[in-house]
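Board work, copied verbatim: GH92 family glycosyl hydrolase
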Amino acid sequence: METHRTRRKRLGYRSALVGGGVAVAVGALLAPLVEAPAASAASRADEVRHPVDHVDPLIGSAGGGNTYPGANLPFGMIAWSPTSTTGDQTNTAAANGYAYDTTRVRGFSLTHVNGAGCHPGAAGDVPIMPFVGEVDSSPTADTKDQKYAATFSHEKEKAEPGHYRVGLDSGAAADLAVSERAGVADFSFPQDAPARLLFRTSNSLNGSENAHIEIDRERHKVTGWVLTGAFCGRRANGGENNRKTYYRLYFSASFDRAFSTVGTWENDRLSPGATTADGGEGYLTGADRAGRGSGGYVGFDTARDNDVRMRLGISYVSLAGAEANLRAEIAPRASVADVAAAGRAAWDRTLRAIRISGGSEPRRTAFYTALYHALQQPNLISDTDGRYPGMDGTPHRVERGQTAQYSNFSGWDQYRAQVQLLALLQPEVAGDFAQSLLNFARQNGGVWDRWVHISGATHVMTGDPSAATLATFYAMGVRNFDAKGAFDSLYRQATVPHPDGLSDKGCPGQCEGQRPNLAQYLESRYAAQDTCHCWGGAAETLEDSVADDALARWARLLGRTKEADELGARGGYWRNVFNPQATGAAGYIQARNRDGSWVTPFDPASDRGFAQGSAATYTWMVPQDVPGLAGAMGGRDKAAARLDGFFHKPDGSWSVRGGDPLRYDPTNEPGIHAPWLYNALGQPWKTQETVRQIITTVYGTGPKGLPGNDDLGTMSAWYVFAALGLYPQAPGRAEALLTGPLFPRAVIAPAGQRRALTIDAPDASDTHPYVHAVRVNGRPHDTSWLDGSVVRQGGSLSFDLADRPDTGWATDPGRLPR
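↓ predict structure ↓
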């Protein structure tokens, strides 16, 4: 196990930063993802040497991707990024504070969550705004962001891993760089105008219960905190349940020069010269919140020096923790350039877990930016001394052998692809994350919440994704967590009803029951739509079937045969919501009532009984038993024909961009595994052409390069796996499904491991997506799936690719994925 010190060293930080150099700028590439055929053999000389050079943080910042471009580190606590405004101080232009098409900002916030779908999403704590002019009214009273905000142009914006810079049209500029829990900023101002820095302490994206600021003129410091939470608290489907507080963020900022003026504000009252203020905004929006809140400002004399340097640390435990984090991670005289260089090096090392060769520059940019987004989470919430805020509202210290406490778990999204990539590339972080979730569950009365933000249980979405996640970690070889304790706890959640399971509080989108109405589920063997106390009975049944199958596989690995048999049977409960006569033409997954009747009227395009998806999409969500699903549909050939119709319009043209509830939706999770189902149906060449079609038409570079919400790296992880030619077969397993790789060569070398998996595909190109032959460790391989031992232990994987389908490769009925 690594210590805190060794882990910081691995990520590129020492207790004192030295050296310098500014990271190479990464522009917003807009090139299409098309390339000429590759050379006949991949050359190691063409290997990407510095992946960080190919990252564009602006990808996904438009078109609903909800990424943010600001400075962060892999799994870091601080994420310093702009908060944009469209003229409403209680709202923002995108779920996570930044929208590429909105070029007006009201501050640079210290915390963000990548790609969450709720608007506003979460965090965005303590926006800090360089303002040119006199503060002669309360910034909170500027409810339309007309005065204390500024526009900018993208020509004056540079976003790169660990570093963000922008020049505002007001003449001010911000240059930000971060370590894991701290940061350094240079704010510059025009010399011929007043220079002020606003601390909007109460103005988190979702509002706040309270906030506090203190200005120390003698020590040139500003400190404070915000008491907030409320993830998804404004959402119509259950959001009121989350209008609550569950964490406090502390900050400590010190400056390299004296303040020329100071002041604070509370609501509409400005107090020039004051040094303390308190007050929150509440968790509503619009007129119900406008004009509420508090903050403070400091001013500077820029007659001789118009550049102000600020050093800042944050903590979820205490002000002392924030200051200790800053001391431990950034040296007193470290410049923005120093910190940016260290951050660039940290990202470069992390991204080098996959080294690709060949491919066009747009391909490389899309790939490494996807990897960058996928490895932003989970996020540190423990300080350098190991203390962190518990889910019970009190501070805790990391467990013996645990490196750090992590949070930000959008389980319903992440268990399908992102957690597999984390386990593959960062197994030590995955283990610490597993232990973190177990710690939270123990602090939460044994309940594993499905969407954890900082130290809050938000209950968002449906199913039991923690079971699928930890079972996947264990299957993929992650061992640095209390596996027995975690399994026992998750097994209890899956078998012992909890009082919350009978509550409708927060339903449908944030139902408090993590295994809702479990007694009825165990009796009926499906979640009844009319009594399930869940988002949708059919979706809940499918999610729990996936989770139970994953737990069963984990139990077998632990030698728990009785539990494995019990849970394995429950993994087949999906059959109880498959109605073979749902329509006159075909069977579908369909919700049922407790008396056994089907919920009618039924429409495959409807989401009745489902969560963020239609019956047509959810019918394919049986990754743990594709042969069984095919049998229910009338056999593999009939199932494959139906799958053809899921990806194509009646005229045969592709339908993979979303918008049609009867067909594939690349923007949301329930169906993202569907392209790989052809492998188990005996038609793997269709997986190859479908995945390639999605890669080349749905994903790309530029701000609109993601199909939809990145969902804490899930959509980006999908792309990484697809480009490598691998995809997780099912939760709770290490096996991978195969398709044609995008690059001539890739070397997967997990952090801290001596093993590596080399993938060679010399003919990889846009014209050669089809697999003709595969060799594993030099031996012919005639199946469209890869044994989990290869994923865990490494080896070599060689593809012979072709420009036309090979309808004979990997089609032996006895050797299909099961």
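The chain has 19 helices and 34 strands.
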